[in-house]
Amino acid sequence: MDIPTREVYWNVHAYVLLMYAMAAVSVGAFLYGFYRKISPIKIGAHDISLDRWPERLRGVYLWEKRFFRQKTAGFMHFVMLWGAVLLFLGTVVVFIHEDLRIRIMAGSFYLVFQSLILDIAGFLAIVGMIVALARRHLFRPARLANGTAADSLLLVLLLALLVTGFLVQGVRIVATRDLWGAWSPVGLAFGVGISPLIADPGAQLLAHKSLWLLHAALAFATIGIIPYTKLGHLIVAPVNVFLRPLDGTGIPRPIDFEKEGVLGVATISDFTAKQLLDLEACTACGRCEERCPAARTNKPLSPRQLILDLRSELRARRATGVGSQKPDQEKAEPAPADLLVPRAIADEAIWSCTTCLACQKECPAHIEPVPKIIGLRRYQVMEVGEFPAKLEEASNSLEKRGHPFTGISVSRAAWMEGLDDVDAHLNAKEAGTLFWVGCSAALNERTMKIAAAFYRVLTAAGIEFRILGTKEPCCGDPVRRIGNEYQYASIVQQNLDTFKSQNITSIVTTCPHCFSAFKNDYAQFGGNLNVTHHSQFILDLMRSGKISLAGTADKKLTYHDPCYLGRYNDVYEPPRAVLAGARLVEMPSSRSSSTCCGGGGGRFWIDEQPQSRVSYLRMQEIIDSRAEAVVTACPFCMLMLDEAAKSKAKGQVEVIDLAEWVLQRIGTSDAVPV
Amino acid sequence: MNIVVCLKQILDPEIPAQDFRIDQERKEPTQGNASLVISPFDENALEVALQMRERAGEGRVTAISIGSSSGTLALRKALAVKADQAVHVAAEGTINSFTAAAILGAALKKLEFDVVLCGRQAGDWDFGVVGPLLAESLGIPCVPFVTEASYAGGAIQAKRQTLDGYDLVKAPLPVVLTVTNASTNNLRYPKVKDVMMADRKEILAWEAATLLGGESPDASIEVRDLFIPVHKVECELIEGDNATEKALKLARRMRELKLV
Predict the structure, then answer these.
(1) Where are the alpha helices (DSSP H) in A196-346?
(2) Cα gap A128→A479, rounded to integer Å
(3) Which domains does chain B have, with CATH numbers?
(4) Which H, E and C letters describe A117-180, residue by residue?
(5) CA-CA distance, A164 to A170, in Å (whole number)?
(6) Residue B16: cis peptide before it, omega within 30 degrees of 0
(7) In which band, very low, low, confident or very high, does the pLDDT at A666 lie, cut at 50, 70 and 90?
(8) How far is CA A447 from the centre of its chain?
(9) What is the Cα–Cα distance from A457 to A515, expressed in whole angstroms?
(10) Do residues A503 and A433 touch, judged by C-beta distance below 8 A?
(11) CB contact under 8 A, B192 and A387
């Protein structure tokens, strides 16, 4: 018999039935475990969607990229995941060969795939597990500090599974004098290694039998415990990635105020089914916490802890059976004992979030803490009426005077002073593109220079555009992030009506919050606007030759990615392309890993103690980059960083908006020195 | 216990100074870009009313506002924070403290009341006399500068702010209290459901002329002139090569200007 293959169940034919029995128990435990784990999510409103499945599948495929945002952890997961997948396929091959009697386990396929490739895969998986164990016990990153003994035990179990597998194989190769044993180099090495202990053929048979039984028991035990341990993420994480919301990551969903019973999230059953699935997908890896600006400045919020606390709540519900029935839409007032805030989630935790989305971009399981936090805020604001006083002031101000600031000293007209042809642009009813200035750029003495600079850039490029001047309202972003959806919905409706009546379909703005609101949030309300951020607009002007930048590369610059431009809208490259002529140094925390300025999600209005200011954290990173100036593209970032530049960096770092940087290089005589 | 809160709707006092405009002819501010808001101390008064009702475990809060139809906005807000009733008294022309007190006095004759709350002064003209004038016209006591109040044993106990602390005052009913701001009486944030309910509630519409029985109240005061004060700042930069020289030049210049 010269066709390469091997005898399946050699030496263990007597135990095959036992093996099937073990398999049945194991699969039963597996299925029951997942049913038990997943079925409680139906207490949430149904929002699981399988539409656009090719895009969803592609996301699962690309999902691996997220592993490698952290190199060691990425490698470890990669080899363990693909090792497991390939070894499982190997088992499927055996099943087809032996149980279906389709003899595929032969010839070069047997040698290359079933022997060599699986051997290497198994070996790399062992390496991965050793790396994982080392990370838990020898070189432990801070985020794994609260790992449990169970976490380590699981790794030991998996390691034992692989090692016994190789030993079974090795003993068989040695005992049967397998002609093709060299195609399984790792197994062969194990066999050769152990052979001095079992020189006698009888001992070899006994050793093989015992190891095979042990290996089978470990394998089926592992499968059986998957849903009961953190190994559950092997299944739930990819499913969660597949089911992820495809439109507007991190954008809260609108509320139907006529139909909704409880506004926002009061109890665990007020989350949607998909949001509850998120909770079961978490492995507590802590990548979110490591990037969270609130956690990094010692605020009482960790996205990981939030998810774990909510999961405990979900599991407690499962244990007591409370809420196991799907609630009616016309639900009564939530029972006080079930309220999440402040019993399960601290009040300060939900108000510490800057909605920067760093946690979500980092999460390998595509878990979304931000919409959950906004859901919790919504209940506090709209049903309880209790939220931080500064945010109440911002909401009230927005309602009374159309902008979220209090105590401002400049009017909306101030930024236009000294600019050419303001009246023409104010009255330009026909010019399509609206330059939307935004409250944050119009109503502060520092940021109004950004508005003026971009106005001058547009003028220099000969663009026809219009402005609303003192008639410009607020886009509403702050109140949506604070959780005041009722107020937000009415602002959006008013603005969409205004746009419609004034025939405005195209908007350019210097504020990423306005930009993202018009682009993503307004779309949920039927808005169909062509929205451009000024970084994109300026790049287009440069590429079409309408402006050209001159001047020398002077100061060493770094670029700060605003969250609502970068992470929310993936606009990372246009501002960098505009800055192509500059001496640009990148901070390690840039693009989707950018650190928030601290001003999003309503945090702009909350006074932070100097030692816990997110803006100081970011300013330190800017100082560490050794740049002399930081360019940003958001008026909120400007205000946060400008303050930090003065107080933290003692004026050593200059903060410039992209529009200001560009204007200086267009060479107009009235360039604003910055 | 029946509590009546008087709410004045005024031009947003928080607008930037450069946006503030006045009408020289009518001797009144013009609205311009300013929005209409409840006068800040009146918001405090409304909160005190709601707290009094809560503490007593019973009672009825009526919000009342005089002026053009825009005043209903203030009353909607009052209903949203769960005032029980709202009354709008339509009145034309200029209303000053004296006419306001007269109209309110006439309106109160149609309402049952034990306590009347006003802000200590309006956020626009800052006269601060409507409460006392009203008390006088009704012939009842007035306790000004109250931050907190509660109803106990047929009387009112009120905390009254003073220059160096506070007085605890007991007053018989009925009584007028004027309210000043404190950390305890910032107007609560309305719940969305209550805002939606408030939009459906009826606001009683009365006419000032009818209430006054055709008599026009004595305005007592007249605004002779109204203007925006101009703060003129002249800036002169003292040049010099070093600090000593600059200091010398500064000293010389200050003497020239007879500043020292």
Answers:
(1) 201-225, 233-242, 273-281, 287-291, 293-296, 303-320
(2) 46
(3) 2-211 (3.40.50.620)
(4) HHHHHHHHHHHHHHHHHHHHHCCCCHHHCCCCHHHHHHHHHHHHHHHHHHHHHHHHHHHHCCCC
(5) 10
(6) no
(7) confident
(8) 30
(9) 18
(10) no
(11) no
How open is the CA angle A336-A338-A340, to the nearest 5 degrees? 100
Ordered domains of chain A (ranges, CATH): 13-242 (1.20.950), 268-387 (1.10.1060.10), 403-543 (3.40.50), 556-666 (3.40.50)
Residue corresponding to tokens 């935790």: A349
Mean pLDDT of A273-282: 95
Q: How many other CB atoms sit within 10 Å of the CB of residue A126?
A: 21
Smallest Cα distance from B18 to chain A, Å: 7
Nearest CA among A1, A17, A5 for reference residue A172 = A5
Rounded to the nearest 10 degrees, what angle do helices A303-320 and A369-378 cross at? 70
B186 CB neighbours in chain A (<8 A) are 389
| pLDDT > 50? residue A674 | no
- Give the Cα separation of B27 and B8 in Å (integer): 19
pLDDT over 60 at A37, yes or no = yes
Query: Is some CB atom of chain B closer than 8 A to the CB atom of A418?
Result: no
A–B interface: beta-carbon pairs under 8 A = 54
Helix (H/G/I), strand (E/B), else coil: A630: strand
Is A486 within 8 Å of B192 when comparing Cβ atoms?
yes
Write out the DSSP string of A227-255. GGSGGGHHHHHHHHHHTS--SSTTPPPP-
Contact A591, A573 (CB under 8 A): no
Nearest residue in A to B35, CA atom: A401
Minimum mean pLDDT among A203-207, A318-322, B102-106, B136-140: which range?
A: A318-322
Comparing CA positions, the residue from B110, B161, B91, B102 lying closest to residue B4 is B110
Determine the Cα–Cα distance for residues B150 and A34; give it in Å rounded to an integer. Answer: 58
Query: Which residues of B fall within a CB distance of 8 Å from A411?
Result: 15-16, 18-19, 33
Q: How far apart are the first and last CA of chain A?
A: 84
Is A410–B186 a contact, with Cβ atoms under 8 angstroms apart?
no
Contact B189 A412 (CB under 8 A): no
Half-sphere exposure of A399 (CA within 13 A, CB side): 22
Q: Nearest CA of chain B to the CA of A522: how many Å?
A: 21
How are beta strands B9-11 and B36-38 bridged, if at all? antiparallel
Contact B192 A263 (CB under 8 A): yes
Nearest CB neighbour to A410, from listed B16, B190, B192: B16
The span from the CA of B87 to the CA of B14, in Å, is: 27
Long-range contact set of residues A424-430: C-beta below 8 Å, sequence gap at least 24: A425/A455, A425/A465, A425/A466, A425/A467, A426/A466, A426/A467, A426/A468, A426/A469, A428/A464, A428/A465, A428/A466, A429/A466, A429/A502, A429/A503
> In this complex, is the C-beta atom of A406 within 8 Å of any C-beta atom belonging to chain B?
yes
User: Each residue of A256-268: pLDDT tens digit?
Assistant: 998 888 999 999 9
d(CA A277, CA A245) in angstroms, rounded, equals 12
pLDDT tens digits, residue range B54-112?
999 999 999 999 998 888 899 999 999 999 999 999 998 788 899 999 999 999 999 99
Give the separation between CA B37 and CA A178, rounded to whole angstroms. 91
∠ Cα A289 A73 A232 (to 5°): 75
